[in-house]
Amino acid sequence: MLKNKKFLDFIKSMKFRLMIIFVVMAIVPCHILRIGILSSYEARAVSIRESEILSQSKILANKIAKSDFLSGKDDNDVESQVSTLANLYDGRVILVDKNYMIVHDTYNIDERRTIISGQVVKTFAGKELINYDKKDHYIELTIPVSDVEDDNHSVLGVMLVSVSTNNIVLNKTYLSQVGLIIEMTVGILFTFLGVLAALKLVRPMKKLETGIDSVCHGYTDKVESMNTFTEVDLISEKLDLVLNKYKVIDDSRQEFVSNVSHELKTPLTSMKVLADSLNSMQDVPVGMYKEFMSDIANEIERENKIINDLLSLVKMDKSEGSLNITSLNINELLEQILKRLQPIADKQHVEVVLESFRPVTAEVDEVKITLAITNLVENAIKYNVRDDKEEASNDEQRWVHVSLNADHQYFYIKVEDNGIGIPEESLEHIYERFYRVDKSHSREIGGTGLGLAITRSSILMHRGAIKVHSVLNEGTTFDVRIPLNYIKV
Q1: What letter does residue 135 receive in the DSSP assignment?
Q2: Residues 245, 341: one domain?
Q3: Each residue of 152-172: pLDDT tens digit?
Q4: Any residues with CB less than 8 A from the CB of 446 and at least 6 apart, and which?
Q5: Which residues are in the Histidine kinase domain (predicted)?
Q6: Pairing of strands 351-356, 399-406
Q7: What is the pLDDT of residues 64-92, one digit of tens each?
Q8: What's the pTM value of the predicted model, to 2 decimals?
Q9: Which of 140, 171, 202 is the last residue of a domain?
Q10: Count of domains forming the chain
């Protein structure tokens, strides 16, 4: 079974197919050339032989017509030339008079016999006929013997000439053998060259396979560049890109697991410390007991929020088939979102303004797009804070501005605030899970570091895009672009 599998693998391999291609490219043209040469040689040789015999036969026919040889009169000169023609071409000559009687046969077999055949009859009508019997290897000519002194060129008789073509066949056989030897020599040579070329061409692929195998077994994390053929080099580069991408994903996954463990462990640790403190104290005052229980409740709420956000991320990571696409009025959706967030804005003393430039209806998943926009606006409100000194010296009103616009293809949502802003070095990390720009503010506000990751995932699921621009201590602007019509890919 193993041998059969190895044999089948070899048959299916590129190396074997390259060998076959080289051999076929060598043998097929040689075979076609050999067949063509042999066919051409035979046709040419027969044509030349026919022309020679016809020419000699016409000369002899004219001489016979001038003599009385067909009338039964002996003519040694004519008889000698007829025999010479037959011997020269290893053939047979038959002379027939106008009564269809054979008057002379170089084989001395059919003399004084009557011959009536289609060829003879046609030749008495003045036609020269030539026939080549390829199977039996002979040429047959029937030539009229015409009276040259008669203006009408009346036919006195017919001369039948049969000539063997065995020498042509022998030459053809010899050429065929030589051609076959050449064909086999070329085939063997090209088979050898094909094996060498196939091994040479497949060697980079084998090296690439070894590199991939090393990556699979963990010996290395990069496929070595081949520096051979352009195609192999491109495959090597693409593999490195894929490996780097998966390495980033793997590192991100490990970091995510570490962050999740840390984020979930922190509230549990706080609750354990608080519970242990209560258990270690005797006669705990009611006020302290309520304060500790309130802290424990807050930690539980924080844990619950982290878990809910993680569940939202898991849903976002599913395929787009999980989207529940409906046609939705985006203007009304924004009004509802801002209405729900207004109490938070009032508590933070932040003015929230909605500006709609035109009515917009789009195909979106209401739950996911609501979650994305809510996160953006809620972040703009919650992080629109100042330090105490800045608060005292800055009388500027804190605000969040939300605008909606659209064209023929997309609708655009812009969320602006004049809050604390985001440092430039943090802008490329804000969509990472559990990443916090200002950890102290995040802890105080209650952020989990998952909101923007959820927002970005939701927007990307809708085939949209999100961009951010921020200046530290001046404010932040998020620009969202989403297609009006959802196209499933």
Answers
A1: T
A2: no
A3: 778 888 999 999 888 888 888
A4: 302, 305
A5: 259-486
A6: parallel
A7: 888 878 877 878 888 888 898 888 888 89
A8: 0.47
A9: 171
A10: 3
